[in-house]
Amino acid sequence: MKSNYIIKLLEKNERLDGRKLDEFREITIEKNPIERAEGSARVKMGKTDIIVGVKLELGTPYPDTPDAGVLRTGAEFNPMAHPEFETGPPGEDATEVARVIDRGIRESETIKVEELCIEEGEKVWMVYVDAYPINHDGNLIDAGSLASLVALNSTRMPKLEEDDKINREELKGSLPINHQPITVTVGKVNGKFLVDPTFEEEKVLETKLSIAVTEEDTVVSMQKSGNGPLSDDDVDKMIDVAVKKSKEIRKLISNGKKTTKSKAKANKSGKSKDGS
Amino acid sequence: MMKTDEKLIIKGKRIDGRKPEDVRKMKMEVGVIPNAEGSALVSFGKTTALASVYGPRPLHPRHLQESDTGLLRYKYDMATFSVDERKRPGPSRREIEISKVSREALEPALFLKKFPRTVVDVFVEILQADGSTRVTAINAASLALADAGVPMRDLVVGLSGGMLDGKIVIDLMGKEDNYCDADIPIAYLPSKKEITLLQMDGRLTPEETKKIVRDVLHASKKVYEKQVEALKKKYSE
Amino acid sequence: MEDDNNDEGKVREITIPGELIGSEKTFKGGYGTYTENGKVFSKFVGILRKKNDYVSVIPLSGVYIPQINDDVIGIVIDVQKFGWTVDINSPWEGFLSLSEGVDEYVDLKKVRMTKYFDLGDIIYTQVLSSRGSDVQLSMESPISRKLRGGTIVKITPNKVPRLIGKKGSMVNMIKDKTGTNIRIGQNGLVWVSGDDISKAVKAIKMVEEKSHVYGLTEEVAEFLG
């Protein structure tokens, strides 16, 4: 509907909402909005709004990694979030979002999965990361990845009782975390590159490339989405943008403090552990 | 209902310090999802429900359309992380049943005759569950429908009551729900005095049952007042 | 509702759905109300209007309901044999028949319907009739036409009068100061083309978001510079 005009503006390096091409919308991060989850976060990028919750359960490890915990990431295009989303099982777009979020966490080795092994080959912690878009105004991958990272950073381990019952009243420290990957999606249209596309902008993109980068500037995952082609020069430029923007976004999470509530709970669990 | 040796009412106080007839701290906010025609976030203590409304909008496929009225669809869904043990995504039998009775609880409050061949979609996500989720969801749906400007006969208030350690209690939290003798969720059109959702499980005498229903209706006034306050807050600006 | 400005500074009486307005003996219930057991109630979160014994409620939210002679903006979503289906941002799609859409004899054996209107075309059109789910559109009005280029902004339909302003004062100011051409559909779709579209769009969003603010006209004027 607005597509022609969006492209026309981009030719002048302008966007409908006045942002620069390499500028994100305002990002707000809320840590642990869901007290009952082991970890959670709500991230807003402009009008895009997404909640991620982390749950820990017991499970069996994969045969090829018998001594490692298991990460499972899910995302649904909740019909709540956009008039075009319909009820039903996740379609290919929602599945792609979940898989790209998953890969950023997995390949960066964000979670120290080897510390999640309870009994080699038999029993490990399963880390479930589930993303729920509440309002979709584009760029669910970046918002969902960021919310997932913040949620994992805030995740507390439940206590495992001797009979394998999970005791969520008593929390045992934090989920062991190695790295802080940030995913930045760079869109391309008419030879222009832009970050953090809105819903309307996504509709006119020829293609986009989602790039996850760790705090050591290691690229850990990429996903090209959309059928427009890219040249090697394009990819160079997009990676440079992603590395630069990932640093800016990472600052937002390191500046934030963990809520006092989560600290208080961690202390409490320490005490009760001594008593048991 | 499970049994516990733990006393859930001690010296007239419940485990969270409430008196038997007290409703938990309520939070209600209208207009939280920009894409939706109407939306609301409602919490009773830790139980939190988010509702969005789309429509009335054209209903597809056409064979579902009714030529003399608009339809209401209601989807109650629990987020995987809303409960202790992760819930599997996708609708469970429990969620399908709750969606049905909740839709029927809202239908008497809506004027949809003037919207033939359309649908009003209500989506409710339980973000955090600590008892009484279906009635919390109904409060969120009521506010979201009013916010969407769907013509209504009345608001719809939801509240639960039950019997715990021989005492009638209002607005059961998760632990109380697990160990109570009975649990009765109710939806009510306050200015019409019509009960539109009524379920019960547990063991009660007929007299106790009747008394709990009346006590819940009495306490629902506070829920109604909170809904009115939330709507006026958004719209009197 | 173009006299909304008159309400500024006054306390508006807001009704809630199901709220009792009065007895049928004293009041005659108009738009936005219903009568049950001799009593008049509100159907909406809205503003209560009383005139002599007549009461009505003006809803503060809601989807666009097509009314005869409304100028609306629509998007062609289906090309049919003898007309076009148009999304008019309302509970129902509108239908523009060939005879209401085209002012000349059309030999369908020789020309294709898409010569006139094709999928995705944006049109400024008028509601010819609206009965239940049947909404007929027409291009007969002299101001109806296909809208080319430009961009579409969506606003809440009941903010449309505010965007128009008294006798068009608000929209004319935005047009003048941004060098744009603006068409406002009663259905909440607004088309903008011309010079500084971005600025005009921002001003339109400002009117929508701050429609309740006292002195809005001055604020928008200041923004536009």
Tally of distinct domains of chain C: 3
Gross geometry of chain C: flat
Distance between the termini of chain B: 47 Å
Number of domains of chain B: 1
Q: Note the total helix count of chain B.
A: 4
Number of β-strand runs of chain C: 16
Major sheet attributes of chain B: 5 strands, mixed
Please name the CATH topology of the largest domain in chain C.
OB fold (Dihydrolipoamide Acetyltransferase, E2P)
The biggest sheet of chain C amounts to: 5 strands, mixed, barrel
Straight-line distance between termini of chain C: 28 Å
Structural class of chain B: alpha+beta
Q: In what range is the share of β-strand residues of chain B?
A: 25-35%
Question: What number is the mean pLDDT of chain B?
Answer: 95
CATH superfamily of chain B: GHMP Kinase, N-terminal domain
CATH architectural type of chain B: 2-Layer Sandwich
Morphology call of chain B? globular
| CA-based gyration radius of chain B | 18 Å
Order of helices and strands of chain B: EEEEEEHEHEEHEEEH
Give the neighbour order of strands across the main sheet of chain C: 8-9-10-12-11
**Assembly state here?**
heterotrimer
Written description of the protein model:
The complex is a heterotrimer of chains A (276), B (237) and C (225). With 276 residues, chain A is of the alpha+beta class. Chain A has six helices and twelve strands. Chain A has a single domain (3-275), classed as 2-Layer Sandwich (Ribosomal Protein S5, domain 2). In chain A, the strands form three sheets. In chain A, strands 1, 2, 3, 4, 5 and 6 form a six-stranded mixed β-sheet that branches. Chain A has a four-stranded antiparallel β-sheet with strand order 10-9-11-12, sandwiched between helices. Chain A is elongated. By secondary structure, chain B is α+β, with helices and mostly antiparallel strands. Chain B has four helices and twelve strands. Chain C is of the alpha+beta class and 225 residues long. Chain C folds into three domains: 2-59, RNA polymerase II/Efflux pump adaptor protein, barrel-sandwich hybrid domain (OB fold (Dihydrolipoamide Acetyltransferase, E2P), Beta Barrel); 71-147, Nucleic acid-binding proteins (OB fold (Dihydrolipoamide Acetyltransferase, E2P), Beta Barrel), CATH 2.40.50.140; 151-224, Ribosomal Protein S8, Chain: A, domain 1 (2-Layer Sandwich). Chain C has five helices and 16 strands. In chain C, strand 9 (83-87) and strand 10 (94-97) form a beta hairpin. In chain C, helix 3 packs antiparallel against helix 4, helix 3 (169-178) runs parallel beside helix 5 (216-224) and helix 4 packs antiparallel against helix 5 (216-224). Residues 1-10 of chain C have low confidence and may be disordered. The chains are: A alpha+beta (276), B alpha+beta (237), C alpha+beta (225). The A-B interface holds A 33-38, 40, 47, 49, 51, 53-55, 57, 74, 76, 78-83, 87, 89, 128, 130, 132, 134-137, 166, 168 and B 32-36, 46, 48, 50-52, 54, 57, 75, 77, 79-86, 89-90, 121, 123, 125, 127-130.
